[in-house]
Design a protein that fits this description.
Helix content: 10-25%
Order of helices and strands: EEEEEEEHEEEHEEEEEEEHEHEE
Number of helices: 4
Strand order of the largest sheet: 5-6-7-12-8-11
Bound molecules: 3-(2-carboxyethyl)benzoic acid
Length: 325
């Protein structure tokens, strides 16, 4: 019933994954020696914490067709389309127009291929907290994304994709996206101001994303694409201590899951998590709190990364799944 699932594998088990025509996407977490030109192959250039070497595999229930359209690489299976776009930055203070262009291309490709609904977007670029031309680069990115989404979406505030925006150490803006033939349902978090309503103090254009997107793939088959979730209540960052930020983040995740559970006949369970943290830390302690708070032990990948607000130390995103048993 689900058109695809997402799993983590050890890198050694994934050497020939792209030979399989049911692989929709294969994400590595550092630059491979030779760049792979397969449209299904992506890189998130962040060091993995904890000593293992993980790859993320999106497995399709059906054979996949691949191609490149408007400079966007894609792989589709007739229900969903995986898209990726990497653009070199021609100047450090031109992130806004570059982001707007990248989003325009994503939409152009997704529409042309018949998957007009962006469900989830992952954004990665370097020096996310650096000021350039009087504006923090994350805020410049937000302005460019806002510009494109306002132009592309007819109902902006109710059809925003779920997202995360993460700082890397490598040049280039990288966007990965999941698009559907049919729309999902936007979910907001009752503990948090909707990001698209953040006040002006967080930048000239507010971040355009929804807290999660719920997608029904059958009457009792749901995916919840969960945006990057951090220690923010209302619109304000909370706590300076990492563990306190983690606990607040987990409260937010629970509230978000509860909100989505009101719309599904079966409970949604966290199925896969990505934890971005600024520094290396005691992963066992983190893992234990996550398992306890969510009452679930989903496969979890820890990546070292910059978060989009300077004071935030940790952010968690992922996928929750509800299915009839
Ligand atoms: C926040 O809640 C924390 O700009 O796409 C989380 C998820 C965050 C997505 C984005 C930013 C984004 O505002 C940061």
């Amino acid at each position: 019933m689900f058109p695809f699932q997402v799993v983590y594998r050890d890198e050694t088990q994934a050497a020939r994954a792209l030979d399989d025509e049911r692989v929709l996407a294969l994400i590595r977490f550092r630059e491979p020696a030779a760049p792979l030109i397969d449209p299904r192959s992506g890189v998130i250039p962040l060091p993995e914490l904890g000593g293992s070497s993980t790859v993320e595999v999106w497995l399709s229930a059906r054979p996949v067709r691949v191609g490149v359209t408007h400079g966007v690489s894609h792989a589709g299976n007739d229900a969903v389309l995986f898209l990726q776009c990497r653009l070199d930055e021609y100047a450090p203070d031109a992130l806004q127009p570059l982001t707007a262009m990248a989003y325009r291309r994503l939409f152009a490709a997704a529409r042309e291929l018949g998957y007009p609904h962006l469900l989830r977007v992952w954004n990665y670029f370097p020096a996310i907290n650096r000021e350039c031309g009087g504006l923090e680069r994350y805020r410049a990115f937000c302005a460019g994304r806002h510009q494109a989404l306002v132009a592309e979406l007819t109902e902006f505030e109710t059809h925003l994709p779920a997202a995360c925006a993460i700082g890397t150490d490598e040049p280039g803006l990288r966007l990965y996206a999941l698009a559907g033939r049919t729309a999902g349902i936007q979910i907001e978090n009752p503990r948090q101001t909707s990001a698209f309503h953040y006040p002006r103090q967080y930048g000239p254009r507010s971040p355009s994303f929804s807290r999660a997107v719920l997608k029904a793939w059958g009457e009792r088959h749901h995916h919840l694409y969960i945006s990057g979730t951090a220690s923010i209540v209302g619109h304000a960052s909370q706590h300076v201590d990492l563990m306190a930020q983690l606990d607040e983040t987990l409260f937010n995740l629970r509230a978000l899951l509860a909100q989505a559970n009101r719309l599904t006949p079966e409970p949604l369970r966290p199925a896969l998590l990505k934890v971005y943290c600024r520094s290396d830390l005691d992963l066992a302690a983190l893992r234990q709190r996550i398992v306890q708070a969510l009452d679930a032990d989903p496969p979890t990948l820890f990546l070292q990364a910059d978060i989009c607000r300077r004071e935030l130390l940790i952010e968690i995103e992922g996928l929750a799944v509800g299915s009839a048993s």
